[in-house]
């Protein structure tokens, strides 16, 4: 009998707000599909778990994004995210269906929810991961051991963590580190409705008001156009902010700029900042250190402006301009507007 008899499949928590599903759920489903394909002998499925109120009709969308099955927990108590009811419901889902692995986005919600569920289940959890794989040697013994890699020691090292003794193997994974597979509307799958048994319907915490912090739109992971400001752009930040507004984008920054006090940590891109993949990334006065590049190299199109022709950033740029930001940027903006 296998060590974890009855535990099967890779589950993904599909985060949603007001019925809008966050991309990270689909990114994780796409990556889970690759893991499942790497070990066909295990016969695993990819299962999406969708919690909310009035969200049943979203299951088809989750299947179109690559899930084989979707477990839907549709209950008025789950209308808005709250730790108590979400953790209760998810723990019951795990106890009922016994996933072998359980992935959630390392979002504000996922970081709150996953550790609570893991603690209740006495399961191992690796937080804030950037890579996942299966130990294929173990597959021969009927085990789908998840190798979860995350930056550690301030980003100086990467550690790969395994949870060999407990199930499910849980991980929170940063948004934007995996590609989202194309949607396939012809995919079919199974939808399973699950009704949790509430011990109490009295909330421990009542939210009186929600004030969105990102009212001014400074969520760089969602921006379609990003202007990356490096140390060479510290004197041009006001101008770059104006340009970003004009182009409908946002300004993000390197760690050097954040440490120099010119930008907030929330807009730092890179290994110890955020991972972004906009349609257009304009790197201004950025040298191209590996730690920065790690967070933006998957952008669709990269333009680099640097006065140093030897700057590393040119190696990953689709288009490079050698010159001063103050001189090159106005010309570039004119060209972009014409395009
Ligand atoms: P610099 O390296 O100082 O480059 C400035 C560039 O601007 C130069 O290439 C220069 O030629 C150019 N320049 C100057 N003036 C002009 C001008 N007028 N016009 C055009 N070009 C000009 N960095 C990150 O960004 N994100 C991270 O998450 C991150 N994590 C890290 C984690 C660890 C553990 C470590 C050790 C480092 C990390 N770093 C990170 C820092 C990283 O190594 C670099 O130091 C940093 O990215 C450099 O920032 P920069 O390119 O803005 O500055």
From TrEMBL:
<dbReference type="Pfam" id="PF01012">
    <property type="entry name" value="ETF"/>
</dbReference>
<dbReference type="GO" id="GO:0009055">
    <property type="term" value="F:electron transfer activity"/>
</dbReference>
<dbReference type="InterPro" id="IPR014730">
    <property type="entry name" value="ETF_a/b_N"/>
</dbReference>
<feature type="binding site">
    <location>
        <begin position="268"/>
        <end position="272"/>
    </location>
    <ligand>
        <name>FAD</name>
    </ligand>
</feature>
<dbReference type="GO" id="GO:0033539">
    <property type="term" value="P:fatty acid beta-oxidation using acyl-CoA dehydrogenase"/>
</dbReference>
<feature type="binding site">
    <location>
        <position position="231"/>
    </location>
    <ligand>
        <name>FAD</name>
    </ligand>
</feature>
<keyword id="KW-0285">Flavoprotein</keyword>
<protein>
    <submittedName>
        <fullName>Electron transfer flavoprotein subunit alpha</fullName>
    </submittedName>
</protein>
<feature type="domain" description="Electron transfer flavoprotein alpha/beta-subunit N-terminal">
    <location>
        <begin position="10"/>
        <end position="207"/>
    </location>
</feature>
<comment type="similarity">
    <text>Belongs to the ETF alpha-subunit/FixB family.</text>
</comment>
<dbReference type="InterPro" id="IPR029035">
    <property type="entry name" value="DHS-like_NAD/FAD-binding_dom"/>
</dbReference>
<feature type="binding site">
    <location>
        <begin position="285"/>
        <end position="292"/>
    </location>
    <ligand>
        <name>FAD</name>
    </ligand>
</feature>
<dbReference type="Pfam" id="PF00766">
    <property type="entry name" value="ETF_alpha"/>
</dbReference>
<dbReference type="InterPro" id="IPR014729">
    <property type="entry name" value="Rossmann-like_a/b/a_fold"/>
</dbReference>
<dbReference type="InterPro" id="IPR001308">
    <property type="entry name" value="ETF_a/FixB"/>
</dbReference>
<keyword id="KW-0249">Electron transport</keyword>
<feature type="binding site">
    <location>
        <begin position="254"/>
        <end position="255"/>
    </location>
    <ligand>
        <name>FAD</name>
    </ligand>
</feature>
<keyword id="KW-0274">FAD</keyword>
<dbReference type="InterPro" id="IPR014731">
    <property type="entry name" value="ETF_asu_C"/>
</dbReference>
<feature type="binding site">
    <location>
        <position position="306"/>
    </location>
    <ligand>
        <name>FAD</name>
    </ligand>
</feature>
<dbReference type="GO" id="GO:0050660">
    <property type="term" value="F:flavin adenine dinucleotide binding"/>
</dbReference>
<keyword id="KW-0813">Transport</keyword>
<dbReference type="InterPro" id="IPR033947">
    <property type="entry name" value="ETF_alpha_N"/>
</dbReference>
<dbReference type="InterPro" id="IPR018206">
    <property type="entry name" value="ETF_asu_C_CS"/>
</dbReference>
